[in-house]
Write a structure and sequence with these properties.
Blueprint: E1 14-18, H1 26-38, E2 43-47, H2 51-60, E3 68-72, H3 76-85, E4 89-92, H4 94-97, H5 101-114, E5 117-123, E6 129-131, E7 134-137, H6 142-159, E8 165-170, H7 174-187, E9 193-194, H8 202-218, E10 224-225, H9 233-246, E11 254-258, H10 269-284, E12 291-296, H11 302-305, E13 311-315, E14 319-324, E15 327-333, H12 337-349, H13 357-361
Parallel strand pairs: 1-2, 1-10, 2-3, 3-4, 4-5, 5-8, 9-10, 11-12, 12-13
Antiparallel strand pairs: 6-7, 13-14, 14-15
Helix pairs in contact: 1-2, 2-3, 3-5, 6-7, 7-8, 8-9, 10-12
């Protein structure tokens, strides 16, 4: 448990992120965490670089709706302060706190006494040997070393009878991340926190994260995820939720999918898809809407590719079919496609058959007849 949120077993995979601001600024931290929770974060982690940040947790916790994880590096004393302040979970990094073995045992005891979970969170960069700020040892396999240090820390906690643990073994490289989690999953049965560390910004970072997380989750490896993106934390949440939806681990709520277009298309598919997306977002504003809408640019593959959508368009030169489940609802002039699609979507959300559906089921030609 992280606070009141279960992680692992048959429970849903959760999405989490980390704040960007100064944890010691209580008012700003509360506002940031509330916004992240509203965006869909189910667990939020805060940095604890000093005593003021650790003590601020006591004031932040009562004001937020999600569990709070305290991120501890190097200093066992900060872990003790965060525990005292009421953090729901303490994250320790074996690469920089593992040498304080007796202190790690004491952190474990205090967490156990207060019913607080721990995350043993390793990453590739933290296991490299350093002298001060400089890295002095790059030899060897960092994945093997990281997994080994995490397993050593787990053994210490287990000796204390503590098993309320989440494990992570992150790398910046998707293939190394996949290998690390496969290794640790084969050697322990704790819930796993997945992520590609310092993935970067924008689309390349999302693709790296989706590659690693998607491969692991498809194998049944992973219980909570963070998509680590440089910049806006809300973007991490959106990406994480979309990864889970694409794997069927979260229900799809709203999706417009479209063909990429080609020389067969007689319409501007990109423009039509953008108009449909804008219309659907407008319909969804302020309410829950579970809907898949297809926008296809020709009659060759369009009808089949739109068949699994709730409602779809197979467009042609000057005309388009509005379809549901592979069946035609009506044929519409190009200029009215989005308007008529909107009406059919509203009918679908009300559980109605849809205008024109009865005639199509009985084999009647759609209004206007002929191919689009």
């Amino acid at each position: 448990m992280k606070g009141n949120v279960p992680v692992g077993g048959d429970h849903p995979v959760t999405v989490q992120t980390m704040t960007r601001g100064d944890t010691a600024d209580v008012e700003a931290s509360v506002a940031e965490i509330r916004a992240l929770a509203a965006a869909g974060a189910e667990i939020v982690r805060v940095a604890v670089p000093g005593a003021r940040a650790a003590r601020a947790i006591a004031a932040i916790k009562p004001e937020i709706p999600v569990p709070l994880v305290a991120d501890i590096h190097f200093s066992p004393a900060l872990a003790f302060l965060a525990i005292e302040a009421g953090a729901d979970c303490i994250r320790i990094n074996p690469g920089n706190i593992g040498k304080h073995r007796e202190a790690v045992r004491e952190i474990c005891r205090r967490c156990r006494d207060r019913g607080i979970s721990m995350r043993v969170g390793g990453n590739e960069g933290s296991v490299m040997e350093r002298r001060g700020i400089e890295v002095v040892e790059l030899d060897g396999d960092p994945v093997e070393k990281m997994v080994g240090e995490v397993l050593e820390s787990l053994a210490i906690l287990e000796e204390e009878g503590f098993r309320d643990i989440v494990v992570s073994v992150k790398s910046h490289d998707p293939l190394d991340t996949i290998r690390a989690y496969r290794l640790v999953a084969a050697q322990c049965d704790y819930p796993l926190h997945l992520g590609v560390t310092h993935a970067g910004a924008g689309e390349p970072a999302v693709i790296k994260s989706a590659t690693a997380l998607g491969a692991l989750l498809a194998e049944g490896i992973g219980d909570t995820i963070r998509v680590s993106l440089t910049g806006d934390a809300a973007g991490e949440i959106r990406a994480g939720r979309e990864i889970l939806r694409s794997l069927g681990l979260r229900p799809r709520r709203l999706e417009v999918y479209a063909c990429p277009s080609c020389g067969r298309a007689d319409v501007d598919v990109a423009r039509l898809a953008a108009e449909v997306e804008e219309m659907v977002r407008d319909l969804a504003e302020g309410r829950e809407l579970s809907l898949r809408v297809a926008v296809m640019g020709c009659e060759v593959n369009g009808p089949g590719e739109a068949a699994r959508a709730d409602v779809g368009i197979a467009a042609g030169r000057g005309w388009g079919y509005i379809m549901r489940g592979g069946r035609v609802l009506e044929k519409v002039e190009a200029g009215r496609l989005v308007e008529r699609l909107r009406r059919h979507i509203l009918a679908f959300t009300r559980g109605e058959a849809g205008e024109g559906a009865a005639g199509a089921r009985e084999g009647a030609a759609p209004e206007g007849g002929g191919a689009p």
